[in-house]
Design brief:
Function (chain A): Force generating protein of respiratory cilia. Produces force towards the minus ends of microtubules. Dynein has ATPase activity.
Structural class of chain A: alpha+beta
Family (chain A): Belongs to the dynein light chain family.
CATH superfamily of chain A: Protein Inhibitor Of Neuronal Nitric Oxide Synthase
Helix content of chain B: 25-40%
Radius of gyration of chain B: 66 Å
Oligomer: heterodimer
Number of helices of chain B: 11
Subcellular location (chain A): Cytoplasm, Cytoskeleton, Cilium axoneme
Number of domains of chain B: 3
Radius of gyration of chain A: 16 Å
Keywords (chain A): Cell projection, Cilium, Cytoplasm, Cytoskeleton, Dynein, Microtubule, Motor protein
Helix content of chain A: 40-55%
Subunit structure (chain A): Consists of at least two heavy chains and a number of intermediate and light chains.
CATH class of the largest domain in chain B: Mainly Beta
CATH topology of chain A: Protein Inhibitor Of Neuronal Nitric Oxide Synthase
CATH architecture of the largest domain in chain B: 7 Propeller
Largest sheet of chain B: 4 strands, antiparallel
CATH topology of the largest domain in chain B: Methylamine Dehydrogenase, Chain H
Number of strands of chain B: 33
Amino acid sequence: MADEGEGEKADKKVVHVYPLVKHSDMKEEMRHEVIELSVAVCEKYSSNYEMAAKTIKDTMDKKFGIYWHVVVGEGFGFEVSYETENILYLFFGGNLAIVLWKCS
Amino acid sequence: MQAAPKTKEGKHKKTRSSKLKNEGGGGGDADDFDAWMKSRQLIKPDDQLDLTDAELGEEVTKVLTPTNTNVIRNLVVFSFKEGEFVPAPLPGNTVTLISFPGNSLHVDSEEARLQIEESDEIGYPLPMPNYSVVEQRESILDGEEEGEGEGEGEDDEKSEAGGKQGAAEEEEAEEEEDEEGKQTEGDQGATETEPGGDDEDAPAGGQQAAAAPGKKRKLINQFNYCERATLTYCNPKRSVDTQTIPPPRSQFGGTVLQWIIYDSYQEDFEEQQKISGRTSVVRGRSTKKTIKKKTALAEMLNRKYLRCWQILERMINQNIYDDIGNDYRYWEDPADEFREGEGNLLPLWKFQYEKTKKMNVTEIVFNPAYYDLFAVCFGSHDFLKQPNEGYLCLFTVKNPSFPDYIIQTDCGVMCCDIHPSYPFLIVLGLYDGNVCVYDLRDGCKEPMYVSRGVNCKHGECVWQIRWGPDMSDGEINFFSVSSDGCVFQWILMQNKLWVTTIITLYLENEVADGPDGTRVVLKTGGSCMQFHPTDNTVFLVGTECGFIYKCSTLFSSKYLMTYNAHNMSVYRIDFNRFDSNIFVSCSGDWRVKVWEDMRPDPLFIFDLGSAVGDIKWAPYSSTVFAAVTTEGKVHVFDLNVNKYKPICVQAVVPKRKNKLTRIAFNEKLHFIVVGDEKGVTTSLKLSPNLRVMVKPPKKQLYLDQTTLQISKLEKLLSLVRELPEGAVIQDTATTVRS
């Protein structure tokens, strides 16, 4: 029993870092691309969320048309209106939340 | 030419200097330019001569000659041809400073004339057509409408539009010349006979050129062209606008906190693990299932296809063998009417299978349920040349080209039997002593039952196999006889083949001395077996020693009867279809003997001149039987017609190369099939004389054929029985020599 308990604890301590899509209505193809991009950028600017958000936004504007908004942070609240099929709410790295949406 | 500009310059200088001088003297009354000039300090070269007024006023006369003084006149060139210097030719007086090719042609030139003619021919609108009065007026009107007021000259030159326009454009540049042009145009316009307005350069030339081809036409140049313009109807404009639906929007909100992130990761991770666990299990199952399903489906499809193809194959075969098919059913040899007591056989199809071409036909059995279906066993009778495979093919008359069913075994098939009540059950006896049962409904791949183990099989080749009547508890069983001297009964149990020994074929009163004073009872090998048609427990066994034993399945201690039948191995025994007490046997000693039950001596003996492979009673007549010999001949006997000779002897296969091995009568139609040593089964139609039916006597028309046949046989037998033994029946007396 003790072993099992320890095992459970050890399990809980495991920090998952894979990108976890919390909410998205994007098309499959687009979503994959956006997730890939977000992960790459957040890994690059792991200590500078502002830079990361800016980079993601710029890239998204180029790839999928302008009026993208990006939030990268560890704790925030948001209530946004977006053009349908253009939102992605993503957790990444265990402590990071990224919200992308498009709205003109 | 070179000198000219110099001199000009010189003159200019002079005049300028004189002007300066004047101005310097005159002062005040000068225009702006002069005033500007004055204010300027002229730059002089330092070494300029200061000349007095008198000197300046002095006229210096310079003569301009056309001779070029710079030309070198004593230029020589070494000529290699003559071996000396020769004076070079003078370079000439002309020096080209600038060459500027133009695209104008002189109107008189040959080229211009050609061009005009050409344009005439092709109708190229380069030269204007002759103007008529009307055209001119129209053009004027156009001009007025367009409002291209040319300012001056409109009134003057109404008669000549082209000229006017040309002139108007050139007005500013060359006013004087233009005025002259106008004059000429005016003159020409007054006459109104020909279009004027040619360029000043060649008004006369143009006329000449035009006159030459008989038409007068204007040449086009910068002073002479016509411009036309029209204004088309302007489409009214209309503006339309639409408004698209703005892209749909949605609302989304959320809160990001570290614990939310953590929790959602945990949740997702657990879910993933569950799914992965499930899928791995499901996959394992599903793949197996799908494979099974797929194969089953494919098999079903294949069967369907196979069925379709079989039908198609039969149709094709029926078309190909249409004539044979007709013979098979309807042909009756008309010659039979004229030959009393003789018949013949008409060959129909040959049945063979590619893989059994070199094998012997070891058994032919007609299917009891389907009259046109028959099984043919392929193996080898040669002890030394045993193939390592055997076949059982089920042919149908409907498809002579290919067997309907093919069963392959790993050693030669020596015999087979089809169950009378379950026509899909086939039992095979193999050369290696094994027996196996196939269910044709399940396909021909795997046997339903097969004998296994050393004790559960015959020690030697199985020679004949027969389905027995069902046991009292409904179990299906069969009997087999083998060279090892045993008759076995095999019972098809739930999952295995149960074997019991019915009888061991010991030789009577034959005991050999064994080692150490022991005595061994000798056995004989069984070679054929036939059940009594009415008494299911009684059967006959032919042996390799030539004996025929009458045995019973109920006990194995002794034989019911022993016939000392032949001098060599008994090959086949067959019971009469109408009288079960009568049977016939054939043997390797060339003899065919007809026996009656419990009578030690044969009723008839026939010598066929070679080993008799098989013999069968006809199903339609009580006195007809047919035999095949190793000579390749079929012998058909009708004892009612001829007691001493066969009524038909016909060679079916070549004597030297091939031997006939087996024969079978069709139960329904009047044809037989014979098998040979090359794996070919031939079907032969019996001619009418070979199947003579008994005509009922006039007083007894109500009697059916069976009774008549029995009585026929009985009559025949009574004749033979009455005769004292050995007096008539002599082997030599009935020998058939062919």
